[in-house]
Automatic annotation (TrEMBL), chain A:
Pfam families: UreD. One of its GO terms (molecular function) is nickel cation binding. Keywords: Chaperone, Cytoplasm, Nickel insertion. This is Urease accessory protein UreD. Residues 1-28 are annotated as: Disordered. One of its GO terms (cellular component) is cytoplasm. The gene is ureD.
From TrEMBL, chain B:
PANTHER family: UREASE ACCESSORY PROTEIN F. Belongs to the UreF family. One of its GO terms (cellular component) is cytoplasm. UreD, UreF and UreG form a complex that acts as a GTP-hydrolysis-dependent molecular chaperone, activating the urease apoprotein by helping to assemble the nickel containing metallocenter of UreC. The UreE protein probably delivers the nickel. It is found in: Cytoplasm. It comes from the Bacteria. Coiled coil: none annotated. Its main location: cytoplasm. Required for maturation of urease via the functional incorporation of the urease nickel metallocenter. The gene is ureF. This is Urease accessory protein UreF. Keywords: Chaperone, Cytoplasm, Nickel insertion. InterPro entries: UreF (IPR002639), UreF_sf (IPR038277).
Length: 264, 220
């Protein structure tokens, strides 16, 4: 049996300088827990996997809205592992994430890795609508296969609009059934871990960051709009996370050092 | 429509400046990721189905009559690397000059006025194809082919690869070029929200490294 589940959360200012979570709805394998945030004024929610998912054929959705002026962090207790499921001829699974961030609001969307297990077939999509003064820190990591196994089929799309205009649109396709060359020298070059770290902040409008490399297989690039994207490939999940953590620290410290308001 | 117009446009001697660009092949050769004709084929195939499909669909959409300024914005969102955005606009500017001399059109004039420093090359190419009376699939074919012919020509120079072998790589990719052009044209017919955004992480990463090299044979 395949699962259809939609989890929802909504963050609002609580009127006392903090952020409340008036909507926190778990569904099926997507269990949301309110957790303590180390950041002042931030609410935090953690996605806790309640069962193994997605299996092929499952349709999972998370919808998160951060109202004007609210501050939210969403993270996860563990990696998400896409699995083949019981039937070999099953449909692909889908995992859709819809995020809306309002004026003056901030969202840190920091899930754990997405692992594409051998035999799995997952279409993942993340769609973000940012208000012009919204801030976003978002990390996505795709790990192609568990340790020592070939990857499953995985496509991901990350689409971000700011004030209704396109800011970033990226589609990646790996594994069986993906168009040829995905593992070759133009795309992955044999690497098995791919990651993106996006920081959108209106302060980049006046002070864009220069492009910069983090070693031979990771680069921080200023987008055409007020945001930077770190793109990295690595041999495995641990090395990938190390590069993305280094970039994240540098970016957040840079925002502080420039006496800009901290991304909270 | 004129089939010969497509040959004029796709001719390597058409003065649009593409010969100065390796399409990411130069850093791939330097880093040892392209060492022979097989590697070149894998590189071209990967580029074709990612950056190539995305660019071909933008060109097809412009040829189909979608708003070129909205397409230029869509191209920016699909090009996170500032080095690659600069390259696309530079090539767009050069293509615009050649296009306005060969197939003058009010649409090309309007885009040149709105984007004096250059629009993304696939958008300019699409409008050029439109001015030349070509179809959106023709524009997609041109871009798909350019996506692989640039690196193949560059690798002949960078590796002293036998030009026969490089051309054989291109010939073997022909059915996939047709597929990509058809996909791109189909997406263009469905509108701007249906355009693909396929991307290649290593091309984006190495473009930035390459742009910072003090000495290089190719501009990109």
């Amino acid at each position: 049996m395949s699962v259809r589940a939609t989890a929802r959360l909504r963050a609002e200012p609580d009127g006392r300088g903090g952020t409340a979570l008036p909507v926190l709805e778990s569904d099926g394998p997507l269990a949301l827990r309110r957790t303590r945030s180390p950041l002042p004024g931030h609410a935090r929610a953690t996605v806790v996997g309640a069962m193994s998912a997605p299996l092929n054929g499952d349709r999972l959705t998370i919808e998160a809205e951060v109202a004007d002026g609210a501050h939210l962090t969403v993270d996860a207790a563990a990696a998400t592992v896409a699995l083949p499921g019981a039937r070999a001829d099953g449909e692909p699974s889908t995992y859709a994430v819809h995020l809306r961030v309002g004026e003056g609001a901030a969202l840190r969307w920091l899930p754990e890795q997405l692992v594409s297990a051998h035999g799995s077939d997952l279409r993942q999509s993340t769609r973000v609508e940012l208000a012009p003064t919204a801030r976003l820190l978002l990390r996505e990591e795709q790990i192609l296969g568990r340790h020592g196994e070939p990857t499953g089929a995985l496509t991901t799309r990350l689409t971000v609009h700011r004030g209704g205009r396109p800011l970033l649109d990226q589609q990646l396709a790996y594994g069986p059934g993906a168009p040829g060359g995905w593992d070759g020298p133009a795309v992955l070059g044999g690497h098995r871990a791919v990651g993106q770290l996006l920081l959108a902040d209106p302060s980049f409008e006046d002070a864009p960051l220069p492009a910069r490399l983090f070693g031979p297989t990771a680069a921080l690039t200023p987008l055409a709009g007020p945001a930077v994207l770190v793109t990295a490939v690595a041999a495995d999940a641990r090395l990938l996370r190390a590069v993305l953590n280094e970039a994240m620290r540098e970016l957040l410290d840079g925002l502080k050092a420039d006496h800009r308001q901290e991304v909270r | 429509m004129s089939r010969a117009a497509l040959l004029v446009l796709a001719d390597g001697r058409f003065p649009a400046g593409g010969h100065a660009h390796s399409g990411g092949a130069e850093p791939a050769v330097t880093q040892g990721r392209i060492r022979n004709a097989d590697d070149l084929a894998a590189f071209c195939r990967g580029r074709l189905h990612t950056a190539g499909l995305t660019a071909a669909a933008l060109a097809a959409a412009a040829a189909h009559g979608l708003d070129p300024l909205a397409l230029d914005e869509a191209a920016d969102a699909r090009t996170p690397s500032p080095a690659l955005r600069a390259t696309a606009r530079k090539l767009g500017r050069q293509m615009m000059r050649a296009a306005r001399a060969t197939w003058p059109s009010p649409e090309l004039d309007a885009l040149a006025t709105a984007r004096p420093r250059g629009a993304h090359q696939p958008v300019v190419l699409g409008l050029t194809a439109r001015a030349a009376g070509l179809k959106s699939e023709d524009a997609a074919h041109w871009v798909a082919y350019e996506t692989v012919s640039g690196p193949a020509t560059a690798v002949v120079r960078l590796l002293s690869l036998d030009p026969f072998h490089a051309t054989a790589v291109l010939a073997r990719l022909a059915p996939e070029l047709d597929d990509v052009a058809a996909q791109a044209a189909e997406a263009a017919r469905r509108g701007i929200d249906a355009l693909p955004a396929a991307s290649a992480p290593l091309l984006d990463i190495t473009a930035e490294a390459h742009a910072a090299w003090p000495v290089r044979l190719f501009a990109s």
